[in-house]
Design brief:
By secondary structure, this protein is α/β, with parallel strands linked by helices. Helices cover 42% and strands 22% of the residues. The strands form four sheets. Strands 4-3-5-15-6 form a five-stranded mixed β-sheet, covered by helices on one side. A five-stranded mixed β-sheet has the order 11-8-12-7-13. Strands 10-9-14 form a three-stranded antiparallel β-sheet, with no helix packed on it. The termini are far apart.
């Protein structure tokens, strides 16, 4: 009898809240999951679940048993990792991230990561909804500070600028804001968190003091790439992560605002975006997760150099002259 397999199925049933949900999570039939629970109960000689056609609940014995065995699958995995410490990382690795970071940063890096670690099987969950590490089998997630919570252990791995930008057509029509206070006079395209309905605040730093600019939300959207496209087609001013904004700025479709040292610069600096990797607990930092975090941190350390070169190139092009209209450098 595969006791570990039966225990793992029982844990999945409890965590997912039903036999049907656990069956979907494990790729099994509901009947097979139910039979596994019956075999485990027969082995223990106690009833673990009270099951009816409409609901399922843990018995008192089932609750005590779950608390004792819930860590067994992870402990077994960690033991396997420890035994294979001299070998290269292998096995499944589930990574969760936002859609924008997944598309613009992770996706280009994944082939290189796979080449470096060919025995790691990668699953990437790219979504703006709230992801539950335990219920969805996520090994590590990538989040910004506003998405952190007390249930996760976070490690800051990088910081990226936020870029305020708009299309040349919009700035020709509406003028160029020179201070954060000017933003309330402009059409602003803001991001709403789909998880709790909050707006992502537009924050600046002045003399070490953080403050939030008042904005006029002409457009509200829960997808960063859609916001970028609204800005490209003249919808207003957007605040975008540099990895989203930079290609559009390089192509001339968007123009940056509030740049340090520019003609229309302000003393206030846009607050940067801190990026964190998150796990449920320190024991979750197995060799696969550590390999991924170290790889991502190394790659992101080199990214600012490329952005700085692009900015310098834009500055040199600007000195050669632009078509008639406002100057933004």
């Amino acid at each position: 009898m595969d006791i570990l397999g039966l225990i793992n199925t029982y844990i999945r049933v409890v965590e997912n809240g039903s036999i049907a949900a656990a069956a979907r999570a494990q790729g099994m039939s509901a009947a097979a999951v139910s039979q596994s629970i019956t075999r485990l109960e027969a082995h223990l000689g106690v009833r673990l679940l009270s099951r009816t056609t409409r609901r399922m609940a843990l018995t008192e014995s089932g609750t005590r048993y779950f608390e004792k065995v819930r860590h067994i699958p992870r402990d077994v995995d960690l033991a396997s990792q420890a035994a294979a410490v001299a070998t290269e990382p292998r096995g499944p690795l589930c990574i969760a991230t936002t859609t924008a970071f997944g598309c613009h940063v992770l996706a280009p890096l994944m082939p290189a990561f796979k080449e470096a670690y060919p025995h790691i099987d990668i699953e990437l969950i790219s979504t703006n909804r709230r992801v539950d590490h335990r219920l969805e089998g996520v090994d590590v997630s990538i989040r910004i500070e506003a998405q952190l919570n007390d249930q996760l252990i976070a490690r800051r791995i990088a910081s990226r600028p936020f870029v305020f930008c708009a299309s040349p057509a919009y700035l020709d029509r509406a003028g160029v804001p020179t201070t954060p206070e000017d933003l309330k006079q402009h059409a602003c395209i803001v991001f709403r968190y789909p998880t709790d309905g909050r707006f992502l605040p537009w924050t600046f730093v002045l003399d070490g003091r953080r403050f939030e600019a008042k904005v006029n939300p002409s457009f509200v959207c829960d997808d960063i790439d859609t916001i970028a496209q609204i800005a490209v087609y003249g919808g207003g001013i957007a605040r975008l992560a540099s990895f989203v904004a930079q290609p559009l700025i390089d192509s001339g479709r968007l123009l940056p605002l509030f740049e340090s040292g520019g003609r229309h610069a302000t003393c206030a600096e846009p607050e940067p975006m801190d990026i964190y990797t998150c796990v449920t607990e320190r024991s979750a930092l197995n060799v696969k997760v550590r390999a991924f975090i170290d790889f991502l941190e190394r790659r992101m350390e080199h990214e600012p150099n490329a952005l700085a070169q692009a900015a310098a190139q834009r500055s040199g092009q600007a000195k050669k002259g632009r078509p008639e209209g406002p100057k933004y450098t």
